[in-house]
Amino acid sequence: MTSDPTRGAGVPRRIVIVKLAALGDIVMASTLVDAIRLRWPGAHLTWVVGDAHAALVRRFVGVDDVRTVPADTLLAGRGLDRLIAGARTVTSIGLGPWDLAFVGHSDARYAKLLRFAGVAEVRTMSGLRAPRPERWFGGEYARLVWEDGDAIPRESLRAHSFTSRAGFSVSSFDASSSVASDAPPQLATLNWPAGIPPARARARHVLLAPGGARNVLRDDHLRRWPAERWGALAATLVAEGCRVTVIGGAGDREEADTVARAVRREAGSAGAFDDLVGRLPLEGTLELIARSDLLVTHDSGPLHLAALTRTPAVALFGPTDPQQFVAPQADVTVMSAAAGLECAPCYDGKGYAPCGLNRCLTDVTVGRVAGAVLDRVMVSYEAAYGTSSQVGAEGLEPPTSAV
User: Fold this and answer.
1) Model pTM?
2) CA separation for the pair 88, 85 (Å, rounded)
3) Cα separation of 10 and 368, whole Å?
4) What is the DSSP secondary structure assignment for residue 400, as one 8-state letter?
5) Residue whose C-alpha is closest to residue 33's, from 190, 191, 188, 192
6) Residues 96-129, buried b or exposed e (16+ Cβ, 10 A)?
7) Cα–Cα dist 20/71, whole Å
8) Residue ranges covered by each domain of the chain
């Protein structure tokens, strides 16, 4: 398309989003839905996604059709298997006619694949549309909608900023006043089966996600707080009267077992503790997060599900930058020891600096995190029931044998 796609014959009628994985990236890319509906409300919108995450995308209000592909094979497969997955992707998308495609990946092969599938114009996260440092990734995805043309000079782009509830300045900019939206990018709205989100427990129910930061392409162990700290945190919270539930995927079993052992050893009873790691489908995890009072997690998929459901969270950050990964509308308390470390944050979008100590996370103490969690949970409980005790800013001492 060469004409202004906001007017006349240039209005795209069929749009496709291609974002296959991972969980957190898919959530952040959901800002595309809101932006597309603002700019082209009458367009038919299809999302192509990996099999594992299709149930989530089907919950996004504004997505008309969801088509699935074998993302794991397409992203990390070899030889013939990957070629077959590519062919299935073309079949899943269909041979057009598509007017416009948004690709939430920088790999140029996706653009070639989409052009083969009959897409007239493809916009990818590369070149001048590549994510910029210190900006929320969700805003960078939405920028694909508002910037027209293959190459827009940076000096012609008008920037505006807003402050998130998490306390970070996030910028978003538009191509021109004729196609600009001054509304900050928004994550997708969820379609709940009952028509309304599940009610919060208001019963000091805290979810812990001690694993995560691993997918088919990589295991980002530098993003994870030590498992022993998670165990000490869980034991502290149970001893303080919280109900603690551990969540995660099947690959998070080791961390979950460490937490369970610590609770049995330190709290003396598992009556207020549940281990649901590997036992819930994605939709079940989403609904559990929506019902809970607070989520404690790393910079990983569950943090983004909390943003979708407006669930308060305490997030442990180390080598990654909260400005890039914390949604503006999210209610997040960030815990990190990165301040003052010249090496942090070190994640550049592809990898990390060589690191043997991981001090940006390991210097975060159990007492500090427990204090932040209990402050948040007790305030919520007091609002519901009129009684609570405040935890001081210095946090709590963990059990005597905790790390």
Assistant:
1) 0.84
2) 5
3) 55
4) T
5) 188
6) eebbbbbbbbbeeebbebbeebebebbbbbeeeb
7) 6
8) 8-149+158-174, 205-385
> Is the bond preceding 151 in cis, omega lying within 30 degrees of 0?
no
Give the CA-trace dihedral at 49, 352, 226, 26, to 10 degrees: -20
Question: Would you call the peptide bond into 97 cis, given omega within 30 degrees of 0 as the criterion?
Answer: yes
- Nearest of 293, 359, 347 to residue 134 by alpha carbon: 347
**Residue 374 contacts residue 391 (beta carbons within 8 Å):** yes
DSSP string of 113-152? HHHHTTBS-EEES-GGGSPPTTS-HHHHHHHHHH--SS--
Q: Which residues contact 199 (CB under 8 A, 6 or more apart)?
A: 291
Cα–Cα distance list, 312 to 16, 35, 248, 309, 377 (Å):
32, 25, 18, 9, 9
3-state DSSP call for residue 260?
helix
Spatial CA neighbour of 169 closest among 326, 309, 311: 326
How many angstroms separate the CA atoms of 78 and 89, rounded?
Answer: 16
Note the residue count of the chain: 403
Q: Assign domain 8-149+158-174 to a CATH class.
A: alpha beta
Radius of gyration of the chain (CA): 22
Helix axes 227-239, 253-266, angle to 10 degrees: 40
Q: Are 358 and 222 in contact (CB under 8 A)?
A: yes
Residue with tokens 């005597």: 400
The H or E element spanning position 261 is helix 253-266
156-187 confidence digits (pLDDT tens): 333 333 223 233 222 222 333 234 456 689 99
Query: How is the beta sheet containing 313-316 ordered, strand by strand?
Result: 273-275, 243-246, 205-209, 294-298, 313-316, 332-335
What architecture does CATH give domain 205-385? Answer: 3-Layer(aba) Sandwich (3.40)
The answer to whether residue 230 scores a pLDDT higher than 90 is yes
pLDDT at residue 216, as a whole number: 57
Taking only the tens place, the pLDDT of each residue in 106-144 is 888 788 878 877 888 999 988 888 888 889 999 999 999
What distance in Å separates the CA atoms of residue 59 and residue 42, rounded to the nearest whole number?
A: 19
